[in-house]
Amino acid sequence: MNDMKAKLHALCVSYVTNRMQAAQQAIAEAQQAQSDDTKSSAGDKYETGREMAQQETNRNLAQLNEANKLMVALNTIALNSTSQKAETGSVICTNNGNFYLAISAGTLTIDGSDYIAVSPASPIGHRLKDKKAGDEFILNEKTYQIQHIL
């Protein structure tokens, strides 16, 4: 039970780490491009290239900041807690799929089973929160019945 949570948590951490590394790499490349751009007689071209590199750096800094927030959220999850109701860190099995209530990280596959990592702030995460086994809810004209919570 907690082993499943630990595996899902590790996959989420890996997902966020990869996003952070990609953003850091893109920032480094944009900064390198900005510093490599030498001023020529076409001053406008130089300024345009530098501005584009700066915008790229800013976009990637924003992505890095978001990834950092996701990592902080993951670090607050207690992996060995158990609860009868769905809360952050819970694995919720429904008739329409399995969910890991943590961060939005898409579909994660463990031991041949798919789990969708969802944020508590997402529409489905919001509906899952505080539900117990046997509870039902409707989202997008689809009825979900909670089978069990880990």
Key structural traits:
single chain; 150 residues; alpha+beta; six-stranded mixed beta sheet; 3 helices; 49% helix; 21% strand; elongated
Structure summary:
This protein is of the alpha+beta class and 150 residues long. Helix content is 49%, strand content 21%.
How would you describe what is shown here?
- The chain has helices spanning 2-36, 43-75, 123-128; strands at 91-94, 97-101, 106-110, 113-118, 136-139, 142-149.
- Helix content is 49%, strand content 21%.
- It has 150 residues and is of the alpha+beta class.
- Helix 1 packs antiparallel against helix 2.
- The termini are close together.
- A six-stranded mixed beta sheet has the order 3-4-2-1-6-5.
- The model has no long low-confidence stretch (mean pLDDT 90).
- The chain has two domains: 2-75; 91-149, no CATH class.
Helix and strand topology:
Elements (H helix, E strand, L loop, with lengths): L1 H35 L6 H33 L15 E4 L2 E5 L4 E5 L2 E6 L4 H6 L7 E4 L2 E8 L1
Parallel strand pairs: 2-4
Antiparallel strand pairs: 1-2, 1-6, 3-4, 5-6
Helix pairs in contact: 1-2
